[in-house]
Amino acid sequence: MLDLAIIGGGPAGLTAGLYATRGGLKSVTMFEKGVPGGQIMNSSEIENYPGVPEVMSGMDLMAKWPEQCQRFGLKHEMITVTQVTRNSETGIFTIHKEDGTTEDAISVIVGTGSTPKRAGFKGENEFFGKGVSTCATCDGFFYKDKEVTVIGGGDTALEEAVYLAGICSKVYLVHRRDTFRAAPSTVERAKNTPNIEFIVNSTPDEVFGEDFAGVQGIKIKTPEGIRQLDTTGVFIFVGNDVNNGVLKQDDGSFLCDITEWGEVVVNLKMETSIHGLYATGDMRLDAPKQVVVAAGDGSTAAIGAISYVMENK
Ligand code: FAD
Ligand code: NAP
Fold it and tell me: Is 16 helix (H, G, I), strand (E, B) or coil?
């Protein structure tokens, strides 16, 4: 039986692995379906990880994280986990893997991340990371004093539009209806921000540019016809899928409490509503969706898991 199973090998899972093994747990396995590193590996530039002043690719930033964990004994099994269950009598967790095998663990830390949805217009995938972004905190600064386009009409789109308006010279907010899903107070705040222009009843048609230079503009379908915005940054906020599938039970319920938006409810120790089960990083309630936060969550959860394993072994 494992002391600790970690599901997901992004910044949250890797940091949990580092702290758990270095903190004395003997048998810790991280189940990661791909190469460890997480979604930041898809980013060509990161410049807000503290202590790393150089602008570097996500792949370079994460390159040494697995090696550091392995030094203290973290094992990595490259496999997809399909489900985590718990025996209500013994409190032992079982990790179900896609090859049909299982593994028992005293404690579990889940860090399977979340996936921003795409809007589905021409050029969106081709220019993702080359001007098309789903993260204002990550990429907003690259458009300092420039114009950007934001797509969406929910809380995220309007809050991020206001955030970007503080950095960029102008924000075009493109929404497919003329009423908003976002809270009225958030809509009001955006409407009172002088450098946000609302373009409603409109949808993105095509983002265009050059392979090397990236995005050069976006064409918008408006009631008056196609309007071209020459913005080199296009931010898409059309919802988010939390990767909480491993917590789903056979009867459709979740192993622990989740919010109506699918985020895992945790306390300040990153413990879920089930003792010994922790959730970290982008998948947990109110996640700021940043590498430094995911890493912090991983360390917090591991410190909690060490105590839990000591008490329950
Ligand atoms: P993830 O990084 O999503 O890792 C989850 C891991 O779990 C993945 O490796 C996945 O393969 C694995 N997994 C999922 N399901 C399973 C399963 N069932 N079984 C096994 N493994 C599974 N943040 C910043 O701080 N600064 C930036 O500049 C920045 N730029 C970004 C640019 C881009 C293009 C993207 C996509 C993200 C960016 N982020 C940035 C956000 C940052 O990448 C995330 O906040 C961070 O990676 C979250 O870490 P995590 O460990 O919670 O999840
Ligand atoms: P969301 O509420 O689902 O909003 C997504 C927005 O994108 C909607 O306006 C939707 O338009 C639009 N959209 C969806 N698909 C599109 C497409 N293909 N093309 C163009 N537009 C598209 O997502 P969210 O804003 O990320 O919020 C998710 C949840 O988190 C919400 O419940 C939200 O309240 C919550 N949240 C809360 C806060 C807060 O309380 N401070 C902050 C952020 C998020 P339609 O409206 O026409 O469907």
Answer: helix
The CA 66 to ligand 2 mean position distance, Å, reads 35
How much of the chain is in helix, strand and coil states, percent to nearest 5? 25, 30, 45
Whole-number pLDDT of residue 212: 81
Domains of the chain: residue spans and CATH:
2-115+240-312 (3.50.50.60), 118-236 (3.50.50.60)
Residue 78, token pair as written in the block: 């490259």
Asked whether the beta carbons of 155 and 135 are under 8 A apart, the reply is no
The two structure tokens encoding residue 105: 């663990």
Ligand at minimal distance from the CA of 55 is 1
**Looking at residue 165, what is its pLDDT?**
97
Measured in Å, how far apart are the chain's first and last C-alpha atoms? Answer: 10
What Å distances lie between residue 17 and 42, 71, 101, 275, CA to CA? 22, 11, 22, 19
Task: Supply the pLDDT for residue 44.
Answer: 74
The residues that are catalytic are 135, 138-139
Whether 93 shows a pLDDT value over 80: the answer reads yes
With b meaning 16 or more CB within 10 Å and e meaning fewer, what string describes 107-138? bbbbbbbbebeebebebbeebbebbbbbbbeb
| Cα–Cα separations (whole angstroms), residue 220 to 149, 200, 223, 227, 247 | 10, 10, 10, 5, 39
